[in-house]
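--- STAGE predict ---
source: upstream dedup step, 1 unique chain passed
mode: sequence only
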Amino acid sequence: MSTVEEELLLARAALSRLFEPSDTVGLALVSAAGPTAALRIASGEVRLPPEVAAGIGQMLGSAGTASGPGVFTEALGRWTPRVADLAPGRDLETIRRLGGELLIPEDPRWPEALRHLEAGMPLCLWVRGNPEAAFPELNRTVAVVGSRDATGYGLSITGDISAGLANRGYTIVSGGAYGIDAQAHRAALAASTGNSAATIAVMACGADRFYPAGNEDLLRSVADRGLLLSEVPPGSAPTRWRFLQRNRIIAALSAATVVVEARWRSGALNTAHHAAGLGREVGAVPGSVYSANSAGCHRLLRDGSAVCVTDAQEVAELAGPLADSRTPDSSDSPAPLEDHDGLTVEDLLLLDALPVRSSTTIDKLARVAGLSVPGVRAGLARLELEGLAIRSGPDQWRRGHR
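--- STAGE serialize ---
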């Protein structure tokens, strides 16, 4: 590996710990300055050059994001508490020790489908898996997602669809969670006979840990015969924000996204919205009108956001023509996140960082959540009014229950 390649790996590894997924200012900085220079600027080693500041403003403005002079200063306040924790060499050694690697966009093996995310493309992918299992072509991948508390009906149809697709040579993409996700991975592993990845699990935590713990054996099998990947570095904990953001990767890697069971406000609907925003096909499996677990699927069908699918053949028809007949429309704007009780992005990050049983300080919350100290104070005030944060002592906070 050349010196330049190693510098790029170290820079992107460090930035993946410094920034939360989909940090718009951070991603604009990397695009404007390049990974190596962006790390020096974001860590406070050098000042922001005027030409880079102009580039950031232009990118944020074109994306419809606030781009005033204070935006970068506020972002720097979020990143600063994490600078002391940067150890990219250690993170790279950890993933290599586990038989994995860090994949970056400069690598020719980088999945081209992720470039369709444009400004939202991940900085890198921490990957564990079968070294012979290359990323499949876009038109040979299908995402199968749905409820964690799946019914017997949902598990049965998920198994049938995933096994049928795997028999046809498709790779199944999902999120490694309980319920529909786990069943999709399990059926794909059982039925796959091809040389490409049998299944891909996109994690909301570091690739060094198997989460949820109850799926450890399954996820180990995914790492052995498929691919297990994450955009956050080893040691990172799963948070609500990271779960939401990993959905865009699941959608981008897949020619079609199929929702088997989903409640009215399921995270699986978030994946479907990302897929639609990328110009991908979306399918939904109908269920009983009396089942709350199918309410989200029926919502997609009623809104015209999804096509009704009932078996593997119909899903294959949905996914097959995409690579030849459809390309992402850059004018499509990503769909907004599902309503999460009216909380802002900053509130969600802060809520994820608040411990449930113990207490923590404002400084530690800033470091864990990736927010500035003033931002944490303001957020705690909002969450306290909602009953979601409780002051347990001088500068001590824990999570409340509304």
